[in-house]
Amino acid sequence: MCIRDRYQRRVRGAYLKSMSLVQLSRRSAALTRPLNNLLIVRAQSTSAAADKDLFPGAYSHRDSPGIKYTEQKRNQNRPVSPHIFIYAWPPASLSSIANRFSGIAMSVGMLGMGSVGLVGGDVSAMMAAIGASSVGGLAKFSVAFPFSYHYVVGIRHLVWDRKPEMLTNEEVTKTSYGVFGVAGAISLIAAVV
């Protein structure tokens, strides 16, 4: 194999990696390949009608080629599925979401403190001033809750790693309520101190 062939193969590989699955399947269907003395040739398709041959399970007999999928479904007068806010979220999902938000809150807080420190501000003096102000209790709770919540959830996950039999729906619900309660209590104590 010469250097030019290697280069063309490498360029073609990088090009094929950047293509979507539909483009790849259309292009591969258009290639000619000998297979046990057979020559498989298929025309390169660019339309939805030709895609029915390439992807037989992706289209039904009711689909109209050339009309956008969303337009077809909108014109069927079918009911729209209900919105996410009408469902009661399980405590485990709320606990997971709160864990992610507490991690984001800690990251943003550390970014803010680091930024103040980089521009020459005194972070400890600023925090002491906020803690001594009229909103000090709320500020302390707002800082303490993400730390305590994230820490308590981390302990819960360590326990789950050691005892996977605790991963039942009832236990997860109980521990989710417990995590909120323990983190809230620790944060209240920190806000008072």
Defining key terms:
193 residues, mainly alpha, 2 strands, 66% helix, 3% strand
Description:
The chain has 193 residues and is mainly α. 66% of the residues lie in helices and 3% in strands. The protein has a two-stranded antiparallel ribbon. A hairpin with a 2-residue loop joins strand 1 and strand 2 (38-40). Helix 5 (91-118) packs across helix 7, helix 5 packs parallel to helix 8 and helix 6 (123-132) crosses helix 7 (136-162). The longest helix has 28 residues, at 91-118. The protein starts with a helix and ends with a helix.
Provide a compact summary of the structure.
With 193 residues, the chain is mainly alpha-helical.
Please give the largest β-sheet.
2 strands, antiparallel
Average pLDDT works out at: 78
Number of strands: 2
Shape: extended
Low-pLDDT segments: 32-43
Content-based structural category: mainly alpha
Alpha-carbon distance between the two ends:
75 Å
Describe how the helices and strands are arranged.
Elements: H1 3-17, H2 21-30, E1 33-35, E2 38-40, H3 48-54, H4 69-74, H5 91-118, H6 123-132, H7 136-162, H8 169-192
Antiparallel strand pairs: 1-2
Helix pairs in contact: 5-7, 5-8, 6-7, 7-8
